[in-house]
Specification:
Layout lengths: L17 H10 L5 E7 L4 H17 L4 E7 L4 H6 L7 E6 L4 E4 L5 H7 L8
Parallel strand pairs: 1-2
Antiparallel strand pairs: 1-3, 3-4
Length: about 120
C-alpha cells in the first residue's frame, strides 16, 4: 500500500489589512467623544484653546462629540478633582483611552493624532 504525500503548496502571502482598517476607523467617528476643556477665565490662551477645539470638533467630529468648557476660576474643585496644575487643559474622557492635552491646542496635527482622528505621520 502506498501512501500519498500531500502536494506541496506555496504558503500564502499574508495580506496587510491595517491601512484599510486604519482608514475605516478614522473615516467617521462611531462613538461620541466626551471632551472637557479646563480654562482660566477669558485669557488669550484660553480663548485660543476654545476656538481651536471648536474648529477641530466641527470639522472632524460633527454630531459625535460632547464638549464641556470649565473655567477653573469659577469651579476650582473640578480642576482639583482632575488633579490639573496647568490650564488650558483638554481631557478626552471617551472613547478610551483617556488622553490629556495641555496648551492652546494650536498644534492641530498633534491633537488630531492624540484624539485618534488621524494616523501618525512617520
Amino acid at each position: 500500500m502506498t501512501q500519498k504525500r500531500p502536494a506541496k503548496t506555496k504558503p500564502k502571502k499574508p495580506v496587510d489589512r491595517f491601512p484599510e482598517f486604519d482608514k475605516a476607523l478614522r473615516a467617521e467617528p462611531t462613538s461620541t467623544y466626551v471632551l472637557k476643556l479646563y480654562v482660566t477665565g477669558s485669557t488669550a490662551r484660553s480663548v485660543r484653546a476654545i476656538e481651536n477645539l471648536k474648529k477641530i470638533c466641527e470639522e472632524r467630529l460633527k454630531g459625535h462629540y460632547r464638549l464641556e468648557i470649565i473655567d477653573i476660576y469659577q469651579q476650582p474643585e473640578l480642576a482639583a478633582k482632575e488633579q490639573l496644575v496647568v490650564a488650558p487643559t483638554l481631557v478626552k474622557k471617551l472613547p478610551l483611552p483617556l488622553r490629556t492635552f495641555i496648551g492652546d491646542l494650536s498644534q492641530t496635527e498633534k491633537i488630531l493624532v492624540g484624539l485618534d482622528l488621524e494616523a501618525k505621520k512617520e
